[in-house]
Structures
1.
Amino acid sequence: MINIAFVIDAIESPTAGTEKQLLLLIRHLDRARFRPYLCVLRSSQWLNKEFGDCEVVDIGVSSWFRPASWLNLLRFSAFLRRKGIDIVQTHFVDGNKIGILAAKLAGVKGIVSTRRNQGYWHSKNELLLLDILNRWVSRFLANSDSTRRWAAKAERIDIQRIDVIHNALELDRYQPVICRPPAGYMAEIGFPADAVVIGIVANLRRVKAIDVFLRAAAMVTGHCPAARFIVVGDGPERAALEGLCRELGIGSVVRFMGSCLDIPAILAGMDIGVLSSSSESFSNSILEYLAAGLPVVCTDVGGAREAVEDGTNGYVVEPGDFASMADGIRKIMEGENLTKMGRQSREMAERSFSLPCVMRLHEEFFQGVALR
C-alpha cells in the first residue's frame, strides 16, 4: 500500500480547476494500491459538509507570521511520520512551501511538486525560495508540456525531472450533442430559440481576461445577429465586466450566469466555447468544451495547442487579440463548421483526456516515485 498526502492551500468549491482535478484523482485512485489523505492549510464549509472520499487533515497554517502556524507545521510533519506517508504531493503557493518543508522534516522520500500555472504570481523572492525548496523535490508534475518547458526555464529545473500528465475528464457526464440546446433553455435566459450561444466558463479574475471575450462579442454581434453570449462564473471582476457590457452596448445579448455547479448542463446549451485568459497552464474549461462537443476559440496560453488544433476543432489566437477572437467565432458559425468542429472536439477528448487513461498515468507515476 502506498500512502499519499495531497497538500493544498484550501478547497472552497469542487469546481475550480486544480481543486477539481485533485478531487477526481483522490476519488478514483485504486484503493487496493493507494491510500490518499487530503491535507489542507485551512478547512472550508464545503469540505466539512460535502467531502467524504478520504481522511481530511486540517494543517492549520493561516500565516507565516503566527507562531501557531509553525507549531502546526511540526505537528503535520509528525503526522506524516506516524502514518508512514510514502509520497507528499503539493499544490499552490503556500501548500507547496508547507508540504515540502513538512515532508523534508518527516523524512518522506517521495516529494512531488506540481506546476499547474505559469507563475504569474512569481516574484524575485518567491523564485529564490523555490530555488532552495526545489532541491528537496523528488519529481515535478506539470499538466501540460508547455508548463513543463516553462518551469524548466523559469525555475532552472532540469527538464528531465519534470513529468507531464494532462487534466482528466469524466466523459460520461457530458452530452456530445451539437447545436441542440435543451428545450426551454433559450427562453429561460431570455434568448431567441434560434440563437447561437457562445460561452465562457471562468472565474471572474483579471488573469481570465473576460474583457477580451466581451470586446470580441461586441464585434461578432455587428456581423452575426443570431449570436448570444453567456459568462459562467463569478469573482471580483464581475461589476466591472457588467459595466463594460453597458459601455459596449451589448447588455441585451450577454448574460452573466454566476457560479454553476452543473457545468455539463450549461455546456449542453452552448454552441461555441471560449477561453480568453492571459495566462494558463492547461485549461479545464477547454477540456470541458471538448467533452461537450463544442468548437473552441482560445488564447495561445499554456497547453491550449495541446487540446485545440487550429482550424480543426477551433481556433487559437494571441492573448488580448479580441479582433482575431471575433474572427474565429465568426468562422465557426459559417457553414457546417459548428457540427464538424464539434465532432472533432469530442474525438480529441475521448482520445487524449478520458479519466481512465489519465488515472492509469497517475498510478504508474506514483508507483515509480514510491520505488525510487
2.
Amino acid sequence: MKTNWHVATAAEAITAAQFARLGFDVSVQYGANQPEYDLVVIDGARALKLSVKGSNDGAWGLTQTQLARLGGANYHGAIEAWLGRHKPGTAFCLVQFKDVPLSAMPRIYLAWPLQIAERLKQAAGGRGDTTLFEDYKRGPKAAGAGSVERMPSEWALSQDRVDQLFCELLTR
C-alpha cells in the first residue's frame, strides 16, 4: 500500500466488511474531524463503537504524540495520556496487512483501550512503549532485551470475541 491514507482506508473498509459478514449492521463515518470512532456495529439494540487502526509494518504506533508532549522518556505517562483521550465504551480494531497477499484477509484484532494500555506498559521489560507490536523480538541492546511482544491470540476477530466485547460493553 502506498500511503498511510491507503492503509487506513483499506483497514476501515475491511473491518466494515468483516462485521457485515458476521451479520451486524455497520455505520461508517467518512471525512475529516471524526469523533473518537470510525464505525459503529449494531446488533439489534446493541451498538459498539470502533476506532480502526491499520498497519502495514507489524506495529501500531499509538502514543508517540503524548510522549513528545511530556518530553523525555515518560512512557507510562504517555500511555496514561493516550488512555485518557479514549472513551471506555469505544473498542479498537487493529488491522494488520504485513506479509498478507492481496488474495488473503489481513489479521484483525479487537481490544479495549485499557487492554491496549496495559500491554503497552508491559512492553520493553516493563519500561513501556509507544508502539503495540503484533510479533516482535527486542534486540540485545534494547530495553527488555530478548523479550517478545506478541498480540494476544484472544484478541483475534471472531464471533466469540465480538460477543465478549458486547457483553463487556454493559460493564463500561
3.
Amino acid sequence: MPRYLLTAKQIVAARDRDLVDGEGLIVRVKETSCRAVLRFTSPVSHKRRELGLGLVSRQSLQAAGETLVAARGAAEDARRLIRDGLDPIEVRDAKRAEVRAKEEAEKAATKEAAGSLRRFARNYHEEHVEPLRSTRHAQQWINSIERNVPGIFLDRPIDSITPLELLDTLVPIMRRVPETGSRIYRRLSTVFDAAVIGGLVAANPAGPIQRELRRRVGQVERTNYAAMDYRKLPAFVKRLQAAPGTAARCLEFAILTGARTTEALNTEWSEIDFEAHTWTVPFARMKAGQRHVVYLSDRTLEVLEAQYGHNDQLVFPSVTGSGKPMSNMSLAMTLRRLGEKQVTVHGFRASFSTWAYEMNIATPGAIEASLAHRERDRVTAAYNRATFIAERRALMTCWSSFVEGRPVARADGTPVTDAAVIRFPAQEAKRTG
C-alpha cells in the first residue's frame, strides 16, 4: 500500500473515523481526541498490535500538517525496529522501565544522602541560609532547631515523620519558649517544603498542624512567660493610657499594631498615611527584609495625632532632646513602673497572636501577615488582594477594640463569643450579594 495518503485538510474535516495514511499508519479521529496509530504484526509474538504515536492536532491546517509529519517520522522509526526483528512496543516499554528504574535509583540515593531530619536541615541551612544571612544570624537559625528539638526526633528519617508526631514535638517547645518555638515551626516548615520539592517526602507535615498547634499552645497559662495573658490586656491598657509620657504612647502604639519593639521606636512621620490609615515600615527596618504595611485602628491614629509636633521626623523621639529615637529600655521601664516585671514588650506580639488564634478571630493567613511573618508571601498569593486587605484591617480594628475593653463585633453588629468567628466585611458582602 502506498504511503502518505492523507492531507492536513482531511484530518481537520474528518469526524469519528480511522483515516488511512499508508503502510499501517492511521489517524484515529474521535469526538474528543485525534491520535496517530501504527498497525503492525509483531516479529516476536506474530500477533497484530497497535502502537500509539501521539496526538495529531486539528486546531489548524498548519498544526495538523506538522503533527502528521511527526507521526510519519515516528512510524518509520518503528518500522525499522520491526525490520530488525524487534517489537516496537516492547522496545518502548523497556526504555520506560529503564527510565523509571533510573529515577527510583536517583530518588533512593537522594533519600540516603539526606537521611535524617537533622542532616537534611543542615544541608538546607548550608545551601540556602548561610549564603543569605550574616554569620551570626545563620548560626542562630540552625542552633534554634538543634538546641530545642529533641535529638531522638531530629535523627529520625525525614520521610517517616508524621504531622501528629511533629505537633507533639513542637507543643512543649512553644509552651516553654513561645517566640523561639514559633521560629522553629516556621524553619522546619521551610525545611519540609524543600524536602517535598526534592522528592524526599510526599507532603509537608507542618502544614496541617498550624491551627491545632496554636490552639494547644494558646490554652497554656502564660503568667510565667514573657507574654502577658491576653485576658489581662484590657485592664493593663487602661492603666497604660492613664500613664504620662512618650514611652507610654509608644508602648501602646506597639501593642495596638503588633509591631516589634525597634519597629515602633523608629517610626517616622513619612511612614504614616493618615488618609489611608496605614503605617508602611520600610524593608530596611524589617526583620524579614521586606516592606510591611500595618493597618491602623482609630485608637492607633489618636495615639499618633497626640505625638504630632514633638519632632519633625520621629513619631516617638527621645525625651533627652537628642533627636534620636527612644531606647528599648524606655518601654521596659514603663512596664516596670506599671508593675509588670515579668512581661517584655516583645511578648505583646505573642499576646496578640494567642488571642487571635484562641478566639478564632481571623484566618491564620491574616494573623501571620499582620505579624509580618514570612508566611504572608504564600497567603497573599492565595487570596484576592482586596479581600485579604479587608481581613487584615478588620483584624486590627477588632484587636484595638479588645484591648480597649470594647466589644468585638461582626460586620452585622452581633458580638463575637469564644466559639464564634468574625465575619469580615468582604466576606459579608460576598455572602449577601
4.
Amino acid sequence: MFDYFAVLICVIFGLALTHVLRGLAKLIQMRHEVRPYWVHIIWTFNVVIFVLAIWWGMFYWRGLRDWSAEWFYFMATYAILQFMWASMLYPPEFPAGLNCEEYFLKNRYWFFGIQTAVLLMDIPETLVKGAAHLRAVPKEYPFLISSLLVISVVAMFSRSRRVQGVLGVAWLLITLGYTFFIPVMSRIVGGE
C-alpha cells in the first residue's frame, strides 16, 4: 500500500514545490517589472524547506502494514493542504508591476490560515507515526509545533512589515534548527 500512497504524495508535493520554485524563478526573471519583497522570498524558502522535510518524513510510513481508507484520505488531505499553502505565495501569472509586498499582505489570511491547518494536521500525523512505532516523536517536537503555530496565528493578523519580517526569519531559524541541528546534537549527546 505504501508504494501506491507514495506515488500520490510525490505528485502533490512535487506540484507544491514546482509552483513555489516557478514563482521564485519568475520573480528573478521579471525583477525589473515586479517589486520583490524580502519577507515574501523568506517565506518561499520556508515553504520549500517545510515541504521537503515533510516529504522526507513520509518515508517512515513505509512501515505501516494496515492502511485504512480514513487514514489514506487524511494523509492525502494533509498533502493537498501543503500544495494549497504553497500556491498562496505566487499568482499563477505575474502581471507587470506586481508588488509582491502588497500581494503577500493581501493573501496573508489564506496563506497563514492554510499554514495553520497544515500544522494542526501535522500533530496527529506525527503522533500516529510514533504510536505505530514507525518513528519516535522527537522530544523537541512540542516546542517546534507550538512555536510554528504561534508564528502562523500572529502573522495571519499582523500587517506590520517588521513583525512579518521577524516571524518569517524566526520560522526559518526554528525549522532549520529542528531539521538539522537537533538531530546532530542528539547523536553527539546520546553517543550514537
